[in-house]
Amino acid sequence: MMKSTTILSAGGVLAWMLATGSPAMQAQKLADAPSAVMLAKNIQQQSAEDSPVAPHASAMAGNILSETPAEMRSNKRRTGQRVASIPAELTLQEAEQIAVRNNPQVRVAQLLARAQHQVVRQTRAGYLPQLQLGGVAAQANDGSRFTFDGLRSTRLITHAGGGLDFHQLLTDFGHTTNLIASSKLYEKARNAQAQASTLDIVLITDQTFYNALEAQALVKVAQQTVSTRKMTDRQVTELTNNKLRSTIDQAFADEDLARAQLLLLDAQTQYSSAINALTSVLGFDQSMDYRLVETGGVAISSPPPDQDRLVQMALQQRPDLVALDYDQQAAKKYARAQWEQLMPTLDTMAVLGGTPVRDDQYFTSSWFGAVGVDLEVPIFSGFRYTAQAHEAEDRAQVAQENLRDMRDRVVRDVRDAWLQTNASYQKIAVTEKLLKASNLGLQLAQARYKLGLSSIVELSQSQLEQTQASIENVNARYEYELSLAALNYQLGTLP
User: Model-level pTM?
Assistant: First the structure.
């Protein structure tokens, strides 16, 4: 089940903190700021060249479902091997690979798929020969009869012997065949869910990675703000000492510097918290020292223009849809198999063995053997078979309706994600213009203040607007990255 995606950046929280008081309450609200992307489950891998919205997509999760049963049993592929440490410089693709290797949910999903493969083998065993070896030795009151086993009356004789028992199903008119087909389809559904779990971990990693990058960028903004406020504070102090400015100007400059320093402290705390969250997603329970490296470059590609094409892509490759489709196909096969319990069953059987210890009065030969054909035709089972068949049909219809409902929600979620991605992309250009204008306004305010044409209030307001514009620009950039990843998620491709 996919969930709608919302984006909220910590940058907006930092800008609000800069403009208001109560540092303790501000720090608490910053710590409680929600994640940038609310994630849902079940996504499917798509190569980078097939995805119009994944210019830097990784292809590392695509081979998980191509494992043969022997490879899965060997447990030596990279997804089953934990990574011992994080490299000193961590890129997004490296973070995705480490998270997939270390996260237990990926292994759980793979084990469930392997378990379903064993169900296929169990079901297929009904069509394979059954051969048993047995032996028995009995001391009995020769000639007496066993008389309380229903209608049978077995003569008890002292003997010892053994032999082979062979049984082979010839046909049950499609019952076992449809059971095998149903279990195979369920296996495919579990494989799709395993891939979705893997890609879900990848997307969670992308979310925490981009949150950490954004926090890292906001630390740089805060450091630049502190540097600018210090320079202004020194200038105002010198002017005040020379009796060119009043002590009120000095008080305003000191307050602005203190707020900038608080902004830096909170930004550093937010960055440390984001790094801790990323370390946890990567599967480590202890802090590690590493630096995030952004490999995407400065240029930002525009979102895909064709919304209808994206919808069709999602309908074709979303793994939750694939899993539900396999589930409803499997349910139909199983319903058909339940009806075929009313058909006859034909099998052949044979026995061969010897009785070395025997009483010749009752055993005319030292060996025994027989071969034959058994035909069983169900006449009346108390309506059990028909009830099971009707139950299976109803469950198949439920699976079909679930698939139809999921298709409707996929179309809605893709369109919503596309709208949000386009809005986030447009915000980048707007915030860049706002940043340029605020930089120019700050330069003019500083020049006017030096010439004595404006007050410290005007300069402080210009500095605040420039800091807010810087934060909003950083926020807009990473908001677009996160919305792009969310769109890829809705499409069922790697972010």
Answer: 0.71
